[in-house]
Design a protein that fits this description.
alpha+beta; seven-stranded antiparallel sheet; six-stranded antiparallel sheet; 11 helices; 18 strands
């Protein structure tokens, strides 16, 4: 409930990663309001900031190519999620301000409180075709170009990433087998699909070279001059990066030595694109052939996009009703327990039948063509009846319902109107219940096979001079696996 003497306080957990970002000037404290929703988003931001900082440290310490690519992928995903959560906080704050203005305005008209139900939106079988040159694919000529790619999928405040895939000219399609489900979608959703690419041909094992060079220069130039030079050559944990000429970001992607993913293509999917079948959608390509991360995209992507509105999968209304038998005695009524769900009004003999998954006694069709109206009062019960009319093969069939009180009749009529409103907003998604497969548990990223001769794949001898380096690499690998395992478990 809104109280005029109640003020919103900006509260951030002391000692959290989010508080440290506010102290550094990356966020404004006034953005955060003391509400339960804000508290949940703050926890999400705090978690992603810690994951991002851990990814930065691991990326700087990586010596293996596949480890660096996975760490850079985690860094990109965390940064995108932080930006999405900040945008969601800003929208919530603007909505709260507009709500206060509307309530204080003396000439504000009646507000429409009817909102469509939410639902699930699932995308699966994502395929992006490639268009290699004949000499590259068929004749296998030219330099072998290899890139690491993955997709980020965002719908509102929900962001998911796919597995990383290594792509070269031996592939005709980029295939992502992940099935991703968004649980809090509105009918006006915008599902943004972003394809990120990074050249995997560069050597990432020399990430500490600038630091070593700075150390040598600092020792030769003197303590004061060398300290300034070292500070200039070492990137700060959150130094800003280019945003393609756009407005500066609230939280730049940290600049860390190592591989960097670039946006190669993107697409936006809407409600109109849902067809419960494998379809093709246009891609907007961002890169060019001169870029090291470039791949010859065909300009389209294929996927299966499905949706399940809550009105199709959940009970929108239930209760006791009396139904007049069709073609029977006008005074003959049957007591039923009715459940409004999907495109039917299910009528059971008892409420216990619903919980026991017993087949309903009969069903009444409820769809976009159904007509429902409150008829005149029954002269005997003095309660308005509810008439439900459907047409089957040119013949109109009408069911008459009644309740025990006027309040119950009003509740049922409101539930029907809300159900029709949900159907009108979700459109083709309410014709039939679409099938959505639950995403399978995230599998650990496969290790990329090493390239080179047999000599490169042989284990080096345990020489005293190399023992410390080998132990250090194994420790870094274990830390990377622990971070990525925690990241995937928290994301799914």
């Amino acid at each position: 409930m809104f109280c005029r003497n109640q003020t919103a306080r900006a509260t951030v957990a002391r000692g959290s990663a989010l508080e440290m970002e506010i102290r550094r000037g990356k966020f404004r404290k006034s953005v955060f309001l003391d509400t339960s929703q804000d508290s949940n988003i703050q926890k999400k931001i705090d978690h992603e900031i810690r994951m991002r900082d851990g990814a930065c440290k691991l990326l700087a310490a990586c010596s293996q190519k596949d480890q660096a690519l996975e760490a850079a992928k985690s860094l990109q995903t965390c940064s995108t999620r932080i930006m999405a959560y900040m945008s969601e906080l800003q929208r919530m704050k603007e909505a709260q301000v507009m709500q206060k203005v509307a309530r204080r305005s003396s000439d504000a008209g009646p507000m429409d409180d009817r909102h469509p139900c939410k639902g699930k939106v699932a995308i699966s079988d994502l395929r992006i075709p490639l268009m290699w040159k004949d000499t590259e694919y068929f004749k296998n000529k030219g330099e072998l170009h290899r890139c690491a790619v993955f997709c980020l999928l965002q719908l509102g405040g929900e962001i998911f990433d796919t597995d990383m895939v290594i792509v070269d000219r031996t592939l005709t399609d980029i295939c992502f087998d992940n099935a991703i489900v968004f649980n809090e979608a509105n009918p006006g959703f915008e599902l943004r699909v972003e394809l990120y690419s990074c050249s995997s041909e560069d050597d990432y094992s020399s990430g500490s070279t600038p630091r070593k060079l700075a150390s040598k220069l600092s020792s030769s130039l003197g303590r004061s001059t060398g300290k300034k030079l070292r500070a200039a050559m070492e990137p700060s944990p959150c130094s800003p990066v280019s945003n393609g000429g756009a407005s500066p970001l609230l939280l730049p992607v940290p600049s860390v030595a190592g591989p960097k993913y670039h946006l190669l293509a993107h697409a936006t999917l809407l409600l109109s694109h849902i067809q419960d079948s494998f379809r093709t959608h246009d891609l907007t390509i961002s890169g060019s052939e001169e870029c090291s991360y470039w791949l010859p995209l065909y300009g389209s992507m294929c996927c299966r996009l499905a949706a399940q509105p809550h009105c199709m999968t959940q009970q929108m209304m239930s209760g006791c009703l009396k139904v007049k038998q069709l073609g029977g005695d006008p005074l003959s009524w049957t007591d039923v327990y009715a459940v409004l769900k999907g495109t039917s009004l299910f009528c059971y003999h008892r409420q216990e039948d619903v919980e026991a998954n017993v087949e309903p006694a009969f069903t009444i069709s409820i769809n976009k063509e159904t007509r429902i109206r409150a008829s005149d009062k029954d002269p005997q019960s003095r309660v308005q009846n509810i008439s439900i009319s459907n047409r089957f093969g040119g013949e109109e069939v009408t069911h008459t319902l009644t309740t025990d009180s006027r309040e119950d009749t009003h509740r049922w009529m409101e539930a029907f109107w809300q159900h029709f409103y949900d159907m009108s907003q979700w459109k083709q998604c309410c014709d039939d219940l679409m099938k959505i497969e639950l995403p399978s548990p995230r599998k650990p990223a496969p290790v990329t096979p090493k390239q080179g001769s047999l000599y490169h794949e042989m284990a080096p001898l345990a020489a005293p001079s190399c023992e410390g380096l080998l132990l250090q690499d194994n420790a870094v690998s274990a830390e990377i696996r622990a971070l990525l395992s925690s990241y995937y478990n928290d994301s799914y």
